[in-house]
Amino acid sequence: MSDYPVTAQTRLRRMPERGQYDQATVHAILDAGTVAHVGVLIDGAPVVIPTAYWRVGEDVLVHAARATRFARALRSGQRASLTVTLLDGWVLARSGFNHSVNYRSVMLFAVPEEVEDAESKNRLLDALIERIVPGRAALVRPATAKELAATAVFRLPLAEVSAKLRSGPPKDDEADLDWPVWAGVIPLALTAAAAQPDPRQSAGLPGRPPL
Amino acid sequence: MSDYPVTAQTRLRRMPERGQYDQATVHAILDAGTVAHVGVLIDGAPVVIPTAYWRVGEDVLVHAARATRFARALRSGQRASLTVTLLDGWVLARSGFNHSVNYRSVMLFAVPEEVEDAESKNRLLDALIERIVPGRAALVRPATAKELAATAVFRLPLAEVSAKLRSGPPKDDEADLDWPVWAGVIPLALTAAAAQPDPRQSAGLPGRPPL
């Protein structure tokens, strides 16, 4: 797979060794993430909105109720910023200064493009359900024309995008290595617990998550 | 505890029943979260930056290397937006349209104020370490004047702030309740695994995380 171009916006200045611009890394982080934080301008000031997202090929997709401020900002023609962050651990060094965080993140800049046609929206929204439980999109009650009209879907093409990662143990100053404090990593991960069935249903229905 | 005032920016328009403006709820979400996403203007466009954060009283604190674009944007005098999101679960309804997410989030707007004085910075940075492992700040090698000078610390006062939450099972249309698909919640939580000691240390040092 190829690399995304490095632009003035996506070039990492701080700790450039943590930057990655290749498709495989960017796709893997986006596919492992759950919630994106999208920055848009509302009344001239930045607003950061958390939202579900998903990837289809070289597009990141987000959806919103049609008439919200968020949807209006996304269709305004202004550049948006979308960031996905996976927190992998606290990094505890011998000095406070060298404490750090293990993480994988993707930062994407794009002018969102609204998907207008109902059939495309339907297909894309199915991909969001499939991302959560594969095979589920075909099982749920199909979307109505009214529901599709009430849902705005936006694509943010993967063009101006970078990944940033840190992993591994603390990087202490050599002179601190004998400082008498425990050093290491607390690994963190978003984990799923056993699915909780809605009580109002018969047993044995399909579309249940594997766990 | 009292409520934060509802302003034009913080008033929830979409699903206002999910909004909370009380101190206890806002504090609890901020104290349970790990990473904030901060929206700043860089060259006139929003950029969303993931960062560690912490709360001390009625301030949220973030830090940055002194000369980064992020630090310059935070000290520019422009309004920033800071969002903390805890993802609690995927909500699987009978229709795609009623699928949802269980979450707790806080959205804060403020013009960040830089903490200039080294002693205050030192004390505040200690509070970040204490948040990760209580008792650890006193054990690490103390910060040097050079390290404190290289670290910018900003306070964002909790004034214009709101919380938004969803919890519980799917809310399906009555007519969909017999649709033959499993419905319920997949609970999600950020969980810590056993701490991984840096191999370069003696056994039994203090400051180890409890897990």
From TrEMBL, chains A, B:
InterPro entries: Pyridox_Oxase-rel (IPR024747), Split_barrel_FMN-bd (IPR012349)
Pfam families xrefs: Pyridox_ox_2
Source domain of life: Bacteria
Protein known as: Nitroimidazol reductase NimA-like FMN-containing flavoprotein (Pyridoxamine 5'-phosphate oxidase superfamily)
Annotated source species: Plasticicumulans acidivorans
